[in-house]
Amino acid sequence: MTGYFARIPLLLFTMIFTENYVLVQFLGICPFLGVSQKFSSCIGMSGAVIFVMTLASAATYAIFHAFMIPLGLGYLSTIIFIVVIAALVQFVEIVLKKFMKGLYNALGVYLPLITTNCAVLAVTLLNVDESVAQTYNFLESCANGFGAGVGFALALILFCGVRKTLERAKPPKAFQGLPITLIAAALTSMTFMGFTGMAENLFG
Asked: Which of 6, 24, 184, 200 has an alpha carbon 20 to 30 Å from 165's alpha carbon atom?
């Protein structure tokens, strides 16, 4: 593949596997641990995060290059991006409350917490960080956001399966509850370390 779409497969693979925001970069741990107990909640949260990350990447990239840079407001990117993310999360919350009441109740406090999910903010800042991604275009930024959201969803759903298995296990009393959950999360993270270097070989 060449031209405008050339780096999209590499970006998607990188965000989902080799640079997974939860299991490799350890961002967004709060909802990862809080929502991964029920499969239905995982699916709902995954869809919401993918939607917010993708739209936030598109909106913040456009705002940054169309308005903030010409006006010399690049130094306000963190504050402005948080406002954009908050608006998108509010939109998702309104839609779920109106059309998917059960899922809205299941997600509870973790839905508005997407606003403060550092993984969502990190991907939008990465898209406009000239020291990291000075050649990113609009489509690549959207792909970054979508891939990061899918990576979050993959980590959440996988860990939900791990936690279901832990429910049937009988760890020593000292490890029950949060300790065994954190150990399981660490082991799950280690499996994703095996993808290191694969992107360059597959898409290089």
From this structure: 24
As a three-state string, the secondary structure of 130-148 is HHHHCCCCHHHHHHHHHHH
89, part of any domain: yes
Distant-in-sequence, close-in-space partners of 34: CB < 8 Å, separation ≥ 6:
110
Q: Of 204, 173, 156, 162, nearest to 13 (Cα)?
A: 204
How many domains is the chain partitioned into structurally? 1
How far, in Å, CA of 183 to CA of 162, rounded? 11
User: Domain range for residue 185?
Assistant: 7-192
pLDDT digit string (tens) for 52-62? 999 999 999 99
Residue corresponding to tokens 């903030």:
68
Assign residue 84 a region (left: φ > 0; alpha: ψ between -120 and 50; beta: otherwise): alpha
Phi, psi of 169 (to 5 degrees): -85, 165
Largest CA distance in the chain: 60
Percent of the chain with pLDDT over 70: 93
* 76 domain residue, yes or no: yes
pTM: 0.87
Say what the alpha-carbon torsion angle 138, 32, 131, 203 is, to the nearest 10 degrees: -70
Distance separating alpha carbons of residues 143 and 150, to the nearest angstrom: 10
Task: Give me the half-sphere count of Cα atoms (radius 13 Å) on the Cβ side of residue 96.
Answer: 21
C-alpha 196 chain-centroid distance: 19
pLDDT tens-digit series, residues 133-182: 456 889 999 999 999 999 999 999 999 999 888 888 888 888 888 889 89
